[in-house]
Amino acid sequence: MEARRGRDGVMFGVLGPLSIAPGPVTSAKQRLLLATLLCHRNTRVSVDRLIEELWGAEPPSSARTNLQGYVHYLRRQLGAELILHRHEGYELVVEEAASDDQLFEEAAGRGESALADGDAEAALELFGDALAYWRGPDAYAGVADTATIRTEADRLGERRRAVVEHRIDTLLRLGRPGEAAADARAVVARDPLRQRPWAQVMLALHRSGRTAEALATYGRARSVMIAEAGLEPGPELRDLQAAILGGDPVEVTGGAARAPVPEELPPLDPAFTARVQELDQLSTWLRPAGGARVIAISGPGGIGKSALAVRAAYACTDDFPDGRLYLDLHGATPGAVPVPPGDAVVRLLRGLGVREREIPDDPGRSAALLRTMLAGRRALLVLDNAAAAEQVRPLLPGSGSPAAVIITSRRPLAVLHARQLPLGTLSPAESLTVLAELAGTGRIGADRTAAAAIAEACGGLPLALRIAGARLVSRADWTLTELRSRLADQHRRLDELQHDDLAVRSSCLVSVRSLPPGPARVFALLGLVEADVTVAMAAALSGLPADDARAALDHLVDVQLVRPGGDGRCSVHDLVRLVAAEQAGRLLEPGDTDAALRRLLHHYLGTARRAARLVGAWPESRYTAGVTETACWPPADLDTAEAAAAWVRAESRAVLAVARRGLDLDDGPALVAGLSVALAHPLGGAGRIRDSIELGRLVLDGADGRLAPVLAAQVRRDVNEGLGVLGSSEIVSERLRALQAARELSDPEEEGQALLAVAGAMGRHGRPADAIDYARQAVDRLTATGDPDLPALAWSVLGHCLRLDGRFQEAEEALERALSLRPGRRVHAIALGRLAEVLRDAGRPHDALGLLEQAIVLFGADEQRSDEALAGWIAGDLLERLGRPDEARARWSGSADVLVGIGLLDRVEATELMRQPRPEMPRVLRQLRPREARQ
User: Fold this and answer.
1) Going by fewer Cβ within 10 Å, which terminus of the chain is more open, N or C?
2) pLDDT of 473 above 50
């Protein structure tokens, strides 16, 4: 039968040798790539998955490049619009009626509908049309036999056999038993263990008046099955033999009377209204053209796996006319033992109508009988709450069966050849919808602020939301504010999130209690810190070598107690962390917890000091403030400024979380203060000024007088520096108070740096004359320190303040003096940038631009990205002033990209900014200008 082509003239042929029109694909790898994309049509397939499909577990080093070449060839052959590049993967777009398997499925489905409606003549013609699309005995012929290709080819082959059997049924219904017998005998010859064709032969012979031959056929069928499979014929054949012997009328339904169609799904959860995208994805996979026979839904306890699986099963009822079976395997049910695989097989066989006495005692034979019963059946199995792959594997249908399986499990069952669907938490909007379904839309809508706080306390976890909703239903006298206040107390939140037989704590403890001792201890320690976890953090907390800590985290990921991230970090759900904290209280002695926090703080302190040395040259006091010895636990191995800046950006929130807990240690204030001082400038350079301020205030507010005055003065100065950058209106008075405190210490370096801070604040707030006075005092104090960076920085600040007062010649001299002291790279860049501003204001834009270009290079080398962005923007202004608008726009765009990279500007904001005819300097850079002293 001639196939209709797709809209773009492309037609795919898979029902026989793989083919495409308008032309052939001759390369074996290109044919395999095309076949793999066809198996996953209209779905993105990752590059890594494609490489594995084409080359197996050990691909060549050139695999990625070769794959790009194959895709390029196919795009030229098919049209670039049919192979899309999406998120590190490729998607083959196959329109409706653009492949012969789709046309086959369409005709077969119409035939089945016609047969169900009683129009046997139309059904016979449609079944014939469907089978005419096949060009050979096997689908995807001539393509390498990978697991993906084999699974899809087997599925299509099974679907073809089912259509052949439907056509034979139709011939019987039309009173044409002779043709039916001939066709059924041909099927039996090709597949002698398939029971339905034997039944069709018997029925056709019986209807032709050849009853003796029909009964003899049963004997031959029984002999073949015992000899080749060791199994007696199933109930369909036995019941048909009994009906023929008894002279009972036999309906044409594909054989004799069959067991009732199983409908074992539990009732739908009316509150389950979320997961719309995931439900659509499952429905697509489960449809006949979707190609997925086994789907594994994974996720932590309480994430809604079972509810989603059941809803998807109901949504696809029409696609599985032979029944829907459901089995709870109790793999993570509190207080229950997982169902043994043999018992699970027996329960499924009972659901399919097999009598107890007919089920073999041997587990292997009973599993084989289950596969036999599912052969030819378009049934759906929901295997809920699986413990592991070995529990599920004996329950799966054979590769040729049209039956489908949905498995839910806390562990990702990656060893099974299944479509994987991991589930995460619900969004805030979805969470509110679930609460509204449970507690009532009116009640939630009346106080959406409290409702949002309840949803946030539940962390988007469906189980927690269900419990919260149930509690509201059971307590009509409660306002939402009442439940909100109860959930606000973290120490009691788990107690509040339990109702009847539902509890977040017990759900989580099922996974916790399965942990070996090592991972169990690491999990408990994760409850000490409210932050994402890395291998280095886990190693420091536990005192384990990095490889052992990584193995423990991998185990926690496997059991879904932590979730992996794309940057080597793992996240812990807030409610799971509360369980971990309870485990820490149960498993660990107070001394163990203190030692764990101390190791982690020492790790962070040593790494922070290493990062500070890499990203800028500062006075030595920056690297020794607080605790001088960090041998308690080694720092991270940072060797470049880029690596140091990346670590600072990634760890800033974790450092804050650890610092909060660490202040309670005996040496905690000194440790945390050391962290604050070491990280002040790396955080500022990475665009994390607010984190630097928060860390410093944490020290000043929580040290309770346990901090050395010099150290407290340094931290206070850093906090004031950050506030000045952010434009605080009280910064001048704050810095004057800090100066007075520094003078009481009789420490020239402390007084000099405090003077610089005052000078910068006064310059920012329009008092340049006063700023110059304080800057000159700072030069006097800091020149005697012997550190070239400090006097150079003081001269740089003086030059900056002189520029603000319009005294350009003196400003240039001061900045030249700063550069002549040969300071470190960081201070050198600051001086260059400030000298460029002086030359610009003095009417020398060409000279200013050259200095700025040098400063930009130095800022970039030290990963001082906010300074780099500011200098770049000023350079753009100069280029515009010099009549070079294209170069100016390129500089502004580069600065915007830097700000996006460090999280100070949103990509959408940057795009809108660059659409302006003359982009305005972003607010975050205006806060940094004019420049202030940076000690």
Assistant:
1) N
2) yes
For residue 272, what pLDDT is reported?
66
The CA angle 290-295-299, to the nearest 5 degrees, is: 135
CA distance 397 to 381: 9
- Rounded to a whole number of angstroms, the distance between the first and last alpha carbons of the chain is 82
pLDDT of residue 932: 35
CB 458 within 8 A of CB 470: no
Take residue 429 and report the two structure tokens written for it: 């909007």
Residues whose CB falls within 8 Å of the CB of residue 589, separated by 6 or more in sequence, listed in order: none
Give residue for tokens 């369409």: 106
CB-count burial class (<10 Å; 0-12, 13-18, 19+) for 75: middle
As a whole number of angstroms, the distance between CA 416 and CA 395 comes to 12
Which distant-in-sequence residues (6+ apart) come within 8 Å of 227 by Cβ? none
In 304-318, which positions are buried (b, 16+ CB within 10 angstroms) versus exposed (e)? bbbbbbbbbbeebee
In angstroms, rounded to a whole number, what is the distance separating the alpha carbons of residues 103 and 5? 10
Classify 599 in phi/psi space as left (phi over 0), alpha (psi -120 to 50) or beta: alpha
Burial class (CB in 10 A: 0-12, 13-18, 19+), 227: exposed
pTM for the structure as a whole: 0.59
Distances (CA, A) of 779 to 749, 751, 759, 769: 11, 11, 11, 16
Report the amino acid identity of residue 475. R
Q: How far apart are CA 914 and CA 929, in angstroms?
A: 20
pLDDT in tens, 288-309: 765 668 999 999 988 989 999 9
Q: Which residues contact 506 (CB under 8 A, 6 or more apart)?
A: 334, 498
Torsion sign over Cα 610, 611, 615, 617: negative
Lowest mean pLDDT among 76-85, 475-484, 618-627: 618-627
Q: Which of 24-28, 813-817, 859-863 has the lowest mean pLDDT?
A: 859-863
CA gap 323, 376 in Å, rounded: 12
Question: What does residue 639 show for φ and ψ, rounded to 5 degrees?
Answer: -130, -5
